[in-house]
Fold:
Amino acid sequence: AQKITQTQPGMFVQEKEAVTLDCTYDTSDPSYGLFWYKQPSSGEMIFLIYQGSYDQQNATEGRYSLNFQKARKSANLVISASQLGDSAMYFCAMSYYGNNRLAFGKGNQVVVIP
Amino acid sequence: GAVVSQHPSWVICKSGTSVKIECRSLDFQATTMFWYRQFPKQSLMLMATSNEGSKATYEQGVEKDKFLINHASLTLSTLTVTSAHPEDSSFYICSARDLRTSGRGNIQYFGAGTRLSVL
Structure:
């Protein structure tokens, strides 16, 4: 079974600083995808970034980058130059290829302070 | 990213009534949609996979007669909470799988969610 672990407590981040959100996963399948989603207080889930298990390079999407360490089974999200609008819950998720069902971690709360 | 619309965003109903929630993919076709439930301060729990033109696949422990799913077209899936009771009060959120992103794991795009309160 897939298992996603996000254990960091709530985080306060200074505006314009970078923040790293930890995510580890457990799987024996060689083919999988890793996703990060943002959920602001309004509730919608916003897709941020994707990393495939066979991707050689770390994914980047604007201010978001993913630090993928396959041997350690970690997929940490890095948000650079934090903005007040980045305050939200951030969820790490994983799916198996050919399945597409997502398993979510418990989330990380981020609060950006001016 | 793709756009998924979910309606209504908020509903209050009396115990024993049924509530229908709609999930639409607005700018792409979705053969597969997913329905999740989220309790306060918790993660998303997958309830069922909605497949266009066929029966939904429910996760273990989810009552299929309580949560009826219909995926009648390539852009619309509906979740009906039948005979709702206070314990069904929750945040329900849908997603649609975008096969145009097959090179990126078939990204699931989410609706804005529905907050259901059963009195």
In short: The interface with chain A takes residues 1, 32, 34, 42-44, 46, 49, 91, 93, 95, 97, 101, 104-113, 115 of chain B (CB under 8 Å).
